[in-house]
Amino acid sequence: MRLLFSLAMLAICTNSVVAQPDKKTDFAHDVVPLLKAKCAKCHTNGTYKGGISFDTREELLKAKAAVPGKSAMSEIHKRVNSKEEAARMPPPKAEPLSAKEVAVLAKWIDDGLPWEPGFSFKPATYLAPLKPRKVAVPPAKTVGREHPIDRIIDAYHTSNKVTAPAKLDDEVFTRRVYLDLLGLPPTTEELEAFVASKNDSKNADLVRRVLAENRSYTDHWLAFWNDALRNEYKGTGYIDGGRKQITAWLYQSLLENKPYDKFARELIAPTPASEGFAKGIKWRGEVNASQIVELQFSQNIGQVFFGANLKCASCHDSFIDSWKLDDAYGLAAVIADKPLAVHRCDKPTGKTASVKFLFPELGTIDATAPKAKRLEQLAALVTHPDNGRFTRTMVNRIWHRLMGRGIVHPVDVMGNRPWSEDLLDYLAVYFAENNYDLKKLIEHIATSHAYQSKAVPLAKEIAGDGYVFRGPELKRLTAEQFTDAIWMLTGTAPLKQSAAFQGALPPFPAGVPKERQFVRTTLVDCDALMRSLGRPNREQVVTTRPEQLSTLQALDLANGQTLTTTLDRGAANILKANPKATAEELVEWVFVRALSRKPNAGERDAAKRLLGGKPTAENVADLLWAVVMLPEFQLVR
User: Can you state the angle between helices 583-595 and 479-490, rounded to 10 degrees?
Assistant: First the structure.
């Protein structure tokens, strides 16, 4: 029975949301220089001969000049290979592409047209501000929409002629809050109590009550910070001492809700417990000059705290934004124990890096000071009250996490224009004025009508100034949310955390439901299913994960051994806990716990037929599989 479901689900997945093949082309280094040299003059920045624009990936696709994954069917590929002078590109007066360049172009198309997020060949006309800006919040237009976020967004919607989406119903709102803030669905009792409540402030009360559950909050948000800070429990570098965990420090920092400015300073000018982030990974053997520990530090500081891409600039002046080689090396020199030789494209230039902060208008770092002192000075500049880039970057990440898309998109290209400068600046100042309190920031966003509205269709492919905010977007469950939700549903969580996990875990406080008192996926080593679903190996900073379902994920969900074994064990647990339950009672039990709602008549009948007259462990496992494969289960709506 489950095989039939598997084949049907796989067909649905592969026909709708399968991602492109693994992207192996180096867009910044292989493709951008080629397109700039051979195509940009006629097809970018306002000149679009033949109606073809290379400004962005979206524009290129709109012109139907390339078919991702199929170079032989792409007009670009046909033109560069044409033997007819009138059809060949570049035109006859220009030098044709070499065989190697044609191969690079073909591979780029065959790899699915990978493109650096946020990059455009059209020169930027927007200059991101540095200092904070206090925003005059517009007056409320309607009763009940006095929240500052709603007042700003209402004014934005009016100017963009957008109708705000309707408010979520209680069941969907409850599920969204628990999944977003704690990473798990609500218990049946929590759901029923919230739906039954007639309190006018129950939405805000729920957000505050959920955020107060410190242990569950920490267990969930640990994944977000492990990704961002390259923290993992095993893997490259841990065997030979070339990498160090920060787990105990990080867990305690989240548990106590450490102010974000202090959190950042302790990472940049670290204690022994927090130094793993700054130290990076010491790779074995010879590595490219751009991958040495000092440049990893530069890249990580730039990306995590400023949404700045210094990886390209660690090899040469960036092809994709305004950062220069001197910027990356200047920041790297802060942590260097000896003079740092500058390399361009892995070749020594004969120069030595000079200590430099990315935003020198905020201050300088004394290059003659001991390293510890230089790091203290850097930490002070990163968290300087006038450094609005620091606060804007963080509030943008939290907005993206809760709403499905950042105010600036992508989140690591903070030089892009936000869809609402007022909203971004308001939240950044709010964050600083409230002692850099991450929970308070999350609460402020989650108590707005904007957050509590129905999700709108995905708009991820709309780039640049063409994007208009219409409401929160659907979000896929992360690997951790998906796995934790199944463990909670089936009672199949492991009995203890990873052997490599540092520090004893605090007990669950009184009042936390038993259903949530288990070892979460953030506390255990990654398994094959988690890896397939997007949990990274964390050798690099990861601030966003892939948003589309890949073919490998579809196969693992359809017939993977990890999920199959878990559901089989879970079915036995459910029958053991409900020995006298009828098929109808089991159907409702599963639906409420998995989807935070009762099944409709059609679902109830289909599920009862699946279970048969006397439910067996095999049939219950099939029901579990059918439910967890529903988009409704796999999405935060």
Answer: 150
Contacts of 553 (CB under 8 A, 6+ apart): 13, 532, 533, 534
**Spatial separation of the C-alpha atoms in residues 621 and 565, rounded to whole Å:** 9
Q: How many CA atoms lie within 13 A of 481 on its CB side?
A: 25
At position 117, the amino acid (one-letter code) is: P
Closest CA to 222 of 615, 415, 484, 565: 484
Residue 35: phi and psi, rounded to 5, are -65, -35
Give yes or no for a contact between 619 and 586, defined as CB atoms under 8 angstroms apart: no
Dist CA 270 CA 292 (whole Å): 19
Q: For residues 138 and 152, is the Cβ–Cβ distance under 8 A?
A: yes
Calculate the CA 578 to chain-centre distance: 38
Rounded Cα–Cα distance for residues 211 and 415 (Å) = 32
Mean pLDDT of the chain: 91
Contact 543, 228 (CB under 8 A): yes
Tokens of 425: 């600046």
d(CA 465, CA 3): 46
Out of 102-111, 223-232, 409-418, pick the least confident. 102-111
Under the banding of pLDDT at 50, 70 and 90, the label for residue 101 is confident
Which amino acid does the sequence have at 328?
A: A
Burial letters for 313-346: b for 16+ Cβ neighbours within 10 Å, e otherwise?
Answer: bbbbebbbbebebbbbbbbbbbbbeeebebbeee
Compute and round to an integer the Cα radius of gyration of the chain: 26
Q: How many CA atoms lie within 13 A of 341 on its CB side?
A: 8
Q: Looking at per-residue confidence, does 599 or 6 come out higher?
A: 599
Report the alpha-carbon distance of residue 293 to residue 274 in Å, rounded: 16
Neighbours of 12 (CB within 10 A): 13
